[in-house]
Amino acid sequence: MDDAIRSRHERRLAALKKERNDYEALWQELNDFIAPGRYRKGDAKETKGRPQNSRIVDNSPLLAHRVARSGMQAGLTSPTRPWMRYSTFDDDMKEFGPVKNYLYQSTRKARDKLAVSNIYNCLHSGYGDELLFGQFCMILTTNKGALHGIMPVAGQYWLAASGQQRVDTCYRRVWMTVEQVVGRFVVQANGDMDWSKTSTTIKNCWDKGSYDDWVEVFNAIEPRHDRNPNIPTKAHKPFMSNYWEAGGPSKVMLEISGFDRNPIIAPRWDIVGEDVYAAYCPGMDALPDVKMLQKEQIWKGQGIEHQVKPAVVAPTALRNKRNSSLPGSVTYVDETNQNAAYRRAFDVNISVGDLAADIKDVDNRINRAFFADLFMAISNMQGIQPKNVYELTQRKEEQLQQLGPTVERQHHELIMPLADWVFGTLDDLNELPEPPQELEGVELKIENISTLAQAQLAVSTGSIERFLAFVGNISGGNAQAMDKVDFDQAIDEYGDAVGVVPTIVRADDEVRKIRADRAEQQRAAASAEMASKMAPVVKQGAEAAQLLAETDETGGPAALLSRLGVAG
């Protein structure tokens, strides 16, 4: 069975390599000119300390890329700000108290679990790759109950997507030391060593003590279509994760395992049609200007050098004589020979100032391609978040509109699958609160409440504010106009748009109970007040009734008039 699996994996890997070939030359250029070290193509283990900046003279593109990477982290998945929450598609249901509390507690547990993992570090590196190459890949796993992300280096993985354009396949090259291979694949649960899965090279290295020699291993992650769901083993999980040694025994797998759900997170900046890899990204947009910037910096340096230390011509008479062009030095020449002194070989009429101005213009275009000023503004945001989001929208509206499609794609290809995977993993670990009965069989929704998403939604919050201000103005002349507005719903909509913590806004059923209790208290108070006002009247009535009764017993109307003090 292993030989059939191995053969299929190797055939598909060859096809995936062919699909990616068209992108590799471009990725190599992006790596060389903008962020060296982020792309590794070679089949052999490359030296990590080799010179990498040989094509970079001006590091402005590298700095713009760094700012954008940090801005993406702060704007989409900030560790210090809420950026996603679980919700329901039914707006009325999510306002129900128990449901609202469950969603809030689940969201908080997910964020707490992410905070103690390495996922945020992986995302920060991943944004750098997405800005540079158009996509990144992260493999989600668990380790002793903790969430853990694996970041394959660009050039060391190959992707494929489903019919819904969701990346569900990743083949990757994994470089492991001999010790790592033996520890994971050779040592058995009982402590025995099973060398049948590895090559003799690994066995020999182990025997010689060469534990740190590198071994090339491949890992295939993809949907498992031929599984038996009734068999609860790793070999029958919905997603396979199989390992084999490159150059190892041809019919043997190192490991056949799997995942319960898709562990691949591979967001793309922008794609065309059915393409798997991104067609556009800031790095690709900026590359022509990056190349021009490096050329112009070289030209500027050469121009300055020609002016400060020009090429000269000298008479042959000075060839064997002591001469110097250093400041303060003296070179003796015959005054009768007018050509005996040094002179410029040629004049360089270059305006360094004009060249510097053009360099600045090119540099600005690179910053705009990476949205550097927008991401810098996001990274430096302080104070009350909704206010800052509004100010950010006012200052950077045009760039936010340009980023809109990208933010939406990140929601569908990064935030939703990541939050869904975390929720499922927490459920597997029994770390979620008990759901209310109302959520039984109900599909949950994942909402993007990141800074960038809120900035996109700021248009709706601004319209709410302007509308309520308008209603307030006209209600001065017509108080009945206030009846047209559902202020409770306005509060809910505004709170959702700015990402307010759900526990701050009361659920609709709780509000109804508060108002019902208040109305009951008001009715009780009104009844008590009316009773206190009626007490004297009741007392007088009682006294009158008693008086009539006594009069009947003592003599009729004449006696009544007498007792009232009226003369008969």
From TrEMBL:
Predominant localisation class: virion
Localization annotation: Virion
Xref: InterPro entries: Connector_podovirus
Domain of life (superkingdom): Bacteria
Keywords annotated in UniProt: Viral genome packaging, Viral release from host cell
UniProt-recorded name of the protein: Phage tail protein
Record organism: Rhizobium oryzihabitans
